[in-house]
Amino acid sequence: MRTAATSSRAKYMQYLKSERSKEKTETKQLKRKALKEEIDFLKQKKMFLQTDMHQTNEKANDLANEAEKSKNMNLFIQSHELRKTISEKEIKINTLDDLINWHRPRIECLIDAGVDLLAFETIPSVKEGEALMRLLKDFPNVKAWLSFSCQSMHQTSHKEDIATSALTCMKMALPGQLIAIGVNCCPPEFAKSLLKDISTISDGFPLIVYPNSGEKWDNREGWSGDKVKTNSSYIESWIQSGAKIIGGCCRTTPNDIFDIHKYFNPEK
Ligand SMILES: [Zn+2]
Question: Whole-structure pTM over 0.90, yes or no?
Answer without folding.
Answer: no
